[in-house]
Structures are given as structure tokens and as C-alpha cells.
Amino acid sequence: MKEMFMPLKVSATALEAQKIRMNVIASNIANVNSTRTPEGGPYKRRDVLFESYMFDESSVGVNIPKIVEDQRPFKMVYDPSHPDANKDGYVSYPNINTIEETVNLISATRAYEANLTLINSYKEMFMKTLDITKA
Amino acid sequence: MADDTMNILEKMLDIAAFRQRVLSSNIANADTPGYKAKDISFQQELDKAIKASNNGNRVSNFRQGYEVYETNTTMPNRDGNTVNLDIEMAKVAENTLIYNAATQLMTMKVRMLKDVIKGGR
């Protein structure tokens, strides 16, 4: 009985993970021009770390153990009038590429939909099984 | 009461349900670095079960683990992940159809049995 709903659990972990990933992508896109953060300096691009999570040998869910900061260098833009410009007149902008984020967003959406489809198909299978008794 | 057909249908449902678990795991891990896509062979497992039942084991007593193997892919992603979402979704569609077909047939068998019990009334 316990393993009966395993596919639902597995897909649910994936939905959760993709949703966290989407939140992170949304934050990245929102902060594409943020030159100031509470921790000081420009916003650093964040990325999620996916990790498989074993329910048992055939059911492997997914988990996000932590959100990591992208270590790529900041984008330097020459703008001497900007309040955050350094002494040479350059401003550090976040290391975010909107196109890259959009591609990741599409990938996350696809994965989310695929997992949702799976939940629905499993539900349908289960209901069909129950209908055997109604013959 | 349960005849051979029913035993085989039962086995088909069991294998398809198990395969669904493997496939959901693959799709859940479509973005996990290093994850290797896995699968079982429906036909092979069913053949094994039928062979065992011909040797006198009742099918549902024959519950050895299914043979899970890593699927071959044309090209793994850069992070070593071998899940191909399109292929996996196609497999899910196939698996769901098999499962639904088996449940339909099972429903028909049960209905026939009921008709017999009721004497056609």
C-alpha cells in the first residue's frame, strides 16, 4: 500500500524542485539591474542544485539541497554619473544574462508540465483500476 | 476462479505500475546532474512471468524483482544526465495505454464472471 502512491510522491518532489528553480530564476530576472543588495555589492546570480533523493531503488525523487551563488564576474558598464560607479567611472552590474534565464525558465516550465502530466496519467490509471470492481 | 487470463492481466498491471514508478523517477530527475535514465522491459518481464506460470507457479506468487537497467541514450547531456524528456513521455504514454488496456480486459473478465454467477439475469 505504501508503494502504491510512490509515483505521485516522486512527481511531487519534482514539481516542488522546479517551482523553487522558477522562484530563483524570477529573482535573477527581477534583479538584473540591482547594483545594491543588503549584503553589499551588486546582486549575484543564483542557481539551484538538483540532487536525486532515493525513496527506494525504483523510486527516485529530486531535491534541492541548496541554492548556490554564481561566481562569474560582474558586468562592468561605463557610467560615471551612476552613484555606484567606481573611481574609473565603471559600475558593476549583476552577472545575469536575461536570455540564459529565459532559456532556463522554459526548461523549468517544460519539466513542470511533464511531471504534472505524469501525476494526471497516474491518477487516471488508478481510477481505472478502481473501476474494475464496478464491472 | 481466477483463470490464466486473469493471472496474466494481473501481472501486466503489476509490471506497468512498476514501470510507471521507474519512468516517473526519470522524469522527476530530468535536470539532476549525473542521473542515469532507467527502464524495465515490459515484454521480457511478462514472458518471464508467463513461463513461470506454465511451470506451475501461480503468477502473483512469482514475485521476483524486475530487472531494472540503464537505458542507452544517443548522447548524454554535459552534466552526465541521460534523461531524454521526449522519449520518457512517449514511454509513459505507451505504458499508460498498456495499463488501461489491461484494466479494461480485467473489467470485462469480472463482468463475465458476474454474469455467470447471476445466471444471465
TrEMBL record, chain A:
<dbReference type="InterPro" id="IPR019776">
    <property type="entry name" value="Flagellar_basal_body_rod_CS"/>
</dbReference>
<feature type="domain" description="Flagellar basal body rod protein N-terminal">
    <location>
        <begin position="8"/>
        <end position="35"/>
    </location>
</feature>
<comment type="subunit">
    <text>The basal body constitutes a major portion of the flagellar organelle and consists of four rings (L,P,S, and M) mounted on a central rod. The rod consists of about 26 subunits of FlgG in the distal portion, and FlgB, FlgC and FlgF are thought to build up the proximal portion of the rod with about 6 subunits each.</text>
</comment>
<keyword id="KW-0282">Flagellum</keyword>
<dbReference type="InterPro" id="IPR010930">
    <property type="entry name" value="Flg_bb/hook_C_dom"/>
</dbReference>
<dbReference type="GO" id="GO:0030694">
    <property type="term" value="C:bacterial-type flagellum basal body, rod"/>
</dbReference>
<dbReference type="Pfam" id="PF06429">
    <property type="entry name" value="Flg_bbr_C"/>
</dbReference>
<dbReference type="InterPro" id="IPR006299">
    <property type="entry name" value="FlgC"/>
</dbReference>
<feature type="domain" description="Flagellar basal-body/hook protein C-terminal">
    <location>
        <begin position="88"/>
        <end position="131"/>
    </location>
</feature>
<keyword id="KW-0966">Cell projection</keyword>
<dbReference type="Pfam" id="PF00460">
    <property type="entry name" value="Flg_bb_rod"/>
</dbReference>
<dbReference type="GO" id="GO:0071978">
    <property type="term" value="P:bacterial-type flagellum-dependent swarming motility"/>
</dbReference>
<comment type="similarity">
    <text>Belongs to the flagella basal body rod proteins family.</text>
</comment>
<dbReference type="InterPro" id="IPR001444">
    <property type="entry name" value="Flag_bb_rod_N"/>
</dbReference>
<keyword id="KW-0975">Bacterial flagellum</keyword>
<protein>
    <recommendedName>
        <fullName>Flagellar basal-body rod protein FlgC</fullName>
    </recommendedName>
</protein>
<keyword id="KW-0969">Cilium</keyword>
Automatic annotation (TrEMBL), chain B:
<feature type="domain" description="Flagellar basal body rod protein N-terminal">
    <location>
        <begin position="19"/>
        <end position="36"/>
    </location>
</feature>
<dbReference type="GO" id="GO:0071978">
    <property type="term" value="P:bacterial-type flagellum-dependent swarming motility"/>
</dbReference>
<keyword id="KW-0966">Cell projection</keyword>
<dbReference type="Pfam" id="PF00460">
    <property type="entry name" value="Flg_bb_rod"/>
</dbReference>
<keyword id="KW-0282">Flagellum</keyword>
<comment type="function">
    <text>Structural component of flagellum, the bacterial motility apparatus. Part of the rod structure of flagellar basal body.</text>
</comment>
<dbReference type="InterPro" id="IPR006300">
    <property type="entry name" value="FlgB"/>
</dbReference>
<comment type="subunit">
    <text>The basal body constitutes a major portion of the flagellar organelle and consists of a number of rings mounted on a central rod.</text>
</comment>
<protein>
    <recommendedName>
        <fullName>Flagellar basal body rod protein FlgB</fullName>
    </recommendedName>
</protein>
<dbReference type="GO" id="GO:0030694">
    <property type="term" value="C:bacterial-type flagellum basal body, rod"/>
</dbReference>
<keyword id="KW-0969">Cilium</keyword>
<keyword id="KW-0975">Bacterial flagellum</keyword>
<comment type="similarity">
    <text>Belongs to the flagella basal body rod proteins family.</text>
</comment>
<dbReference type="InterPro" id="IPR001444">
    <property type="entry name" value="Flag_bb_rod_N"/>
</dbReference>
